[in-house]
Design a protein that fits this description.
85 residues; alpha+beta; two-stranded antiparallel sheet; 3 helices; 9% strand
Length: 85
C-alpha cells in the first residue's frame, strides 16, 4: 500500500531492505553510468542510460552503456514465468 504521507515512510528501513535484497549495488552502478554520461556532456533529455548487457543478467558499466528511449529500455521479452528471455 502506498504511503499517504511521506513523513510516514521509514527511509532507513527501506534502505536496509534494499541492501538485503542486493539491489543497492545495481542502483549505484546505474547512478555511476548516468554521472559518467553527464560528465561527457551527453544530452540525455528524455532518454534512459541503458546497459548493453542488463545488470540483472550480470552486466556492468564495463560492458558498455547507451542512450535508449524509456519505452525501449524498460520493456524486455519475457518467459511465461515473467523472467527475462
Amino acid at each position: 500500500m502506498p504511503y499517504k504521507n511521506p513523513k510516514d515512510r521509514d527511509y532507513k528501513q527501506d534502505y536496509k531492505l534494499q541492501q538485503e535484497r542486493g539491489e543497492h549495488e545495481n542502483r549505484m552502478e546505474r547512478q555511476r553510468a548516468r554521472r559518467e554520461m553527464d560528465k561527457k556532456g551527453v544530452d540525455r533529455t528524455g532518454k534512459d542510460v541503458a546497459h548493453v548487457k542488463a545488470l540483472s543478467k550480470g552486466g556492468s558499466n564495463k560492458d558498455g552503456v547507451k542512450l535508449e528511449s524509456p519505452s525501449k529500455n524498460r520493456s524486455f521479452k519475457r518467459k511465461s514465468n515473467g523472467a527475462m528471455k
